[in-house]
Input
Amino acid sequence: MGAAIIKGYQGNNSASIDSLHVLACMKHFVGYSASMSGRDRTPAWIPDKYMKEYYLPSFKAAVDAGAHTVMINSGTVNGVPGHVNQALIQHTLKDDWRFRGFAVSDWEDFNMLHTVHRVAPDLKTAYEQAFNAGVDMSMVPLSPDYKFYCESMIQSVNEGKISLDRLNDAVNRISSTKQAVGLMNKVQPSLNQYTAFGSAQHKLAAKTAALESITLLKNNDILPLNASAKFLVAGPTSDNLIFLNGAWTHTWQGMDTSFNTQGCKTIVQAFQDKYGTNCIFSKGVELFKEREVEQSRFVSLEDYIKKLDEVETVVLCLGELPSTEKPGDLRSLNLDSKQLELAKMAYAKKKRVILLLVEGRPRIIRDIVDQAAAVVQCYLPGDYGAEALVELISGEANFSGKLPYTYPKYDGVMEFYDRPRSVDRSNVGDFNAFNPEWPFGFGLHYGEVSYEHLKSNEVLSENSPWEISVDVINKGHREIDEVVQLYVGDEIASMVPAGEQLKRFQKVKIPAGKSVTVH
Output
């Protein structure tokens, strides 16, 4: 996926990027996502085996795809801050992988080697440590320390604490990258050259991405939604575009509604446009922040309860406010109690409830999922996500998305699809066994699929490819797009093997009643 993004950003020729493309930056190198606490910029402990097996390969693929820049991990791995990890930055990234672009710090992370991580006695030493570890550029825009940084670097070079070879290497990497993207040219490109920007083609691509990503997790014969019956749309994520886009979209935290794209629809607007007066609305709960912590409160609760009596079906839009980095840290993955209460009120009145989960990470819904008639994982589907969602809910389009993570059932239980088999052993109920809400790679659609006639080489060798094929049969009455997934696992290994690992996947279109052989 990273390689595909890089090609989209930089175009087909990464050595000379034209005016219609931009530089790609890999981030954050490496282990940033694996903090022990699950919170931003907190320590990670990653054994060498797991670093090489799980965390480095995606960056290696990005380097091979031609990425020009990389941003370094703000946290620490095995007690070493990312910005002084010479073994990873210089030896692995630059020497072994032959990365020719430049490495940039995250925001003021040179300084934080002294002020936060406490591995440098002063700022000047911190700059030397990071630069000598292989970080080529310090991100300190508009900082009052900028002048001090420049003066300190000159002094460090004059003192021999930073070699001229290292300085020249960094300058060459930065200037070569600027040259590749055309920043050295006298005439800079203008927006007028990019006639496709915001075009109908781009809008369709955004909508298509949402259509192919949104994932159907449960359906007790309620979807597609009947167009002739009145239903209620409710919930905090139903009526604002910020919930569809998330953070780092229009603004850092994604909360400023003044940047919402004009003409794009919220979830309730998309439903009303499709179903007309059969769609009624009552929000029920709203989300807000107080001292940077997400809070919730009931709004017009009497109206919500009244409208429950007018319908048989409730489309309940749940989720969270957009957030990222430290402001996005959570104490718990549990969805807040007021959102859960909206569902329980509907269940108490024997209503059929469709849960729409509008979220950038899985929030636990264990207490309300069993009674739900349907559950849809919407993720953060973007400006055209509401239109895509309603096309899927109405049956105009078919679901084809699959979960890109294991959806947890319990707070504080780290469950991975490629777990060792020992994780599956249970002693008490289901709590100690591998029992997520939904497994990695799961996703339903309107139809039934079967896999038959799995075939493989009888003899495997290092010099011949492993050839596998399977017939995928669409037993339903409408065309489907099925994501065929290949999982592989060692039966015996010198170290405890993963039970299974995803090695290949392919999305195939299968007409109703037909089959496709996938190789």
The chain has a mean pLDDT of 92. The first helix runs from residue 2 to 10. Residues 14 and 66 are 6 Å apart (CA to CA).
